[in-house]
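User: Before I run my own analysis I want an independent prediction to cross-check against. Here's the chain; please return only the structure tokens and, at the end, one sentence I can use as a sanity check.
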Amino acid sequence: MKVNIYPAPCLRQKCKPVEKITAHIQQTLKEMAKTMYAAGGIGLAAPQVGIDRQLVVLDIGEGLKCLVNPKVISRQGTSVLEEGCLSLPGITVKVRRARKVKVQALNEKGEPVSLDGQDLLAHVLQHEIDHLHGRLIIDYAGLRDKWRLRRKLKELKRQPAEEIKCSVEAKCI
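Assistant: Structure tokens:
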């Protein structure tokens, strides 16, 4: 798998829910985790590797979490953190999000899980779930940040087409 770089169209699509957790889904989650670790990330969503399904892997230093069809069911407080994204190399944006969230999902075995996150974990959960809905950190940028980022975004858009296509190595499920 390879991480797709902005403005790859797959980064803006809304992902479909996973109907059934199969061996193929489990293998996809394992490959996503390997890709995330190899890229030095702390989270990765399926559209970042060209897969149109609601799959997320993350590890903020507390062990790998694999989430299928994750949904934020409650939010509390606010927090602002500077966020980066594997699909937007060299770009960071201060993003205001909920400080605490509760997320429900299925794990890689198909079992329901509930995850309470606060601070960094809350930001990572919301960031990755945003990817499943076609939202990127640049969508949160204020006018000042957009002005600061305009040149970097233009450089990313000028990359050769083969570097920004949705990944063919990651078959759609």
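Sanity check: The beta strands are 43-45, 55-58, 65-76, 79-84, 92-97, 100-106, 112-118.
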